[in-house]
Fold this sequence. Notes:
Elements: H1 3-15, E1 20-22, H2 45-49, E2 58-66, E3 83-92, H3 97-111, E4 119-124, H4 128-137, E5 144-147, H5 149-152, E6 153-155, E7 160-171, E8 189-202, E9 213-227, H6 228-235, H7 248-258, H8 267-287, H9 296-314, H10 322-333, H11 338-342, H12 344-378, E10 383-384, H13 386-396, H14 400-409, E11 413-414, H15 416-454, E12 459-460, E13 467-477, E14 480-481, E15 484-485, E16 490-495, E17 497-498, E18 512-515, E19 521-531, E20 534-543, E21 546-547, E22 551-556, H16 558-582, E23 588-594, E24 597-603, H17 610-625, E25 630-636, H18 637-642, E26 656-662, E27 666-669, E28 684-693, E29 696-703, H19 704-725, H20 732-766, E30 770-772, E31 775-781, H21 787-800, E32 806-814, E33 817-824, H22 826-830, H23 836-845, E34 848-851, E35 856-861, H24 867-883
Helix pairs in contact: 3-4, 7-8, 7-10, 8-9, 8-10, 8-12, 9-12, 10-12, 12-13, 13-15, 16-17, 20-21, 23-24
Amino acid sequence: MRSTQIRQTFTDFFTSRGHHQVPSSPLIPDDPTLLLANAGMNQFKPYFLGETTPAFSRATSIQKCARTSDIDNVGRTNRHATFFEMMGNFSFGDYFKEDAIAFAWELLTEGYGLEKDKLWITVFENDDEAEHIWRRIGVPASRIQRLGMEDNFWSMGVPGPCGPCSEVNYDRGSAFGKEGGPAIDGERYVEIWNLVFMQSQRGEGDKKGAFPILGELDRKGVDTGLGLDRLAAILQDAPNVCTTDLLLPTFHTVQDLAGRACPAEGEEKVSFQVVTEHARSIAFLIADGVLPAKDGRGYILRRLMRRAIRHARLLGMDGPVLPAATASVIGNLGSVWPELSAQAGLIEQVVTAEEESFTRTLAQGTRLLDAAIFRTREARSAALSGETAFELADTYGFPLELTVEAAHEAGLTVDEDRFAALLDEQKKRAKTGGKAKTAEALRKMNTYRELAVALPRTEFLGYDHLTAESTVTGLIVNGTVVPSVAAGADVELVLDRSPFYAEAGGQIGDTGALRFPDGTLLEITDTRYGLEGFRIHSARVIEGELTAGATGEAAVDAERRAGLMRSHSATHILHAVVMAILGDRARQQGSLVEPDRLRFDFAHFTALTASQLTAIEAAVNGHVLEDPEVRAWHADRAEAEAAGAIALFGEKYGERVRIVDIGDFSRELCGGTHVTHGSQVGAFRLLSESSIGSNLRRVEALTGHGALAHINTERRLLHDLAGLLGTRPADAPDALRKRLSVHAAAQQQLTELRTTELRQRAGQLATQARLVGRGHLIVQRVTGVTPDELRGLAADTVDRLSHNPAVVVLGGEHDGKALLAAAISSDLHRDGTQASQILTEAARAVGGGSGGRGPLASAGGRRPQTLNEALDLAARGAARLLSER
């Protein structure tokens, strides 16, 4: 079963059982306590903590996750990965253990067809209920094991919901390990699905991590995670996660770059798998907006990249590796995760720059290491100091393994114990810093909670007023309540009354100004919710000094707000139109409302056609021109739903809700700001339509001034194009088509002429073969060819040699780089010879690496000045090969 079918089977199973399908959140989470999304439940954390109430009681998702806690196990086990897709189902006060276990058993045994007698279960040591349910469902007691809190109990790491886990494990057989169940061997009995039963409330933990259980939750929940990689390995009978269809194309690419197959065992196998697995993580992190940096999530990305590069170098790959490896990830997974394809250019740019930089770092480290070895010998010492090795690794990024290898070649050892001690000290400092950042985020959240209890809720006036007299009831700087702030300071404000709309429902927060009678002036840069209903105004003090308790005039940026209102009302109209044209299933799954610009995500199974997009844009503009009334009213949640109001994921609804009607065609629960009549939206212009995941689409559009500016830009471009073509704007398309047709015909003629020329060159080269041993050899430097042409020329030349065995090696320059290509005759290939063997030393000489499998190989490097030397090396290697026959 391929991964696409595995995903679809999971989603279909749970949506058919009343679960709301929720798209994956980005790898950069909306949670100050997390660097990266590391679990499927991350985006549902506010629901489990009770900070907000979801619009549904059941959910299912396939979440992108990045987790580096097991980075050293990648390649050394069959199951560990730093990036994975977590398939999950969730219950928020709905079903509990019995249904969760029944769902898992049914899906695994019937949906995926796993053998029942190969499934082993672990439960928390005190969870009699879970064991009894598993036994009733048919799992014998002999395949149920009880484990302690470290393995089978879960909490978020902070006070809140927690509970026991039950894990489903699959026995992969004796080839993967020893008998005894998952408590004995996690490689053989691989964990595939973890069911978390959130039934208790935990308190604050102590320094050792222990925490008290305060009691049972009133609304119990379920959080599960089924790892796609691990399940795919089982269903595809793949020995490890790198050989499933999720990573196999990249695995093949890495082997092609290395010029040889991955061995079945040993350190080289680890390196092949590290480069493969890390390439996927790197591509996804960059696609979601992470860039290499010295700390934070950027450091995690850089660590993955440098680790992959180092392992590539251990495999002898001196040339670029990450561009090709990440490109294969995009080619394989870009249709499922379109953000990869959308950011392909950025991914290539980032990995190329980082690999070039780290290659220079390795070169610099080598020079420093050579100097340190010289000094060590001069001092008649037998060991390179741990301080030197640590400085090379910490300051210059030079890996310890390479330091040890170089020292051994020089007859020295390395003080690895001292290196380990220095590394441990650094990790402790980093851990302390990480804890400090987490503590700061938690302190800020605790400050919000304390103020939310101590202060009355901010009265929001922004539906009817853009200005208001407001009193500052709280000042927060870096998570700490302060009595005052001076000019130049960044501060968070709590106001008693506010016209500023806080970001929610896709609409971004208001900005504006806050002026006080004494001349103090604040710029409001953002408005958001610190907690549900607790409004935070981010600001900078421009003039004066602000003191808590001061009263001034709050003023929203009116022009910006007008643009937001146009876009929000247009989003509602667009939603109604999309469902009318595509069907009720095409409901909104997310949105972003900005001034005169919007992004709209909806459920749909195929790309929209050009005619559908035209119809949608026309229908939205038609509704706008009809000038429908936009009316907001309030009702109980049940009344609103009975009246047909649509509730959307991501909105925070209480029992009393606000409904926005636009004419008689749109009715949605919404807390956002809107125009009063549809015509105020102005023009509406669709910009793009794309996929953002399985059965999810996205459109982007402009409204109001943004749409008009875009139309003017397109008109100006059309006039410019017509001018270049020497025709009228109305005739420009036909004129351009004619020009392109002429160009294509000319290009075809040039291609045919070039093909004829290259064939003639191959014939001329074939006449220059010289006899070496019992075979024929051609080694030539050629000019004026591209990389593809050089490979084709080598292959064509060897085919023209009637006498076997034969080897052809050609070299050239292109765009300032050295190029090499080698082709061998079919009899050499049948005997097991690989063309890449001939180019290994030559590739190093030009500062690159070789690639290709079979009778044709190529290489390239950044040192064209050494091309003649490289050709000589290749010639000697080919001559040895032919002489041995």
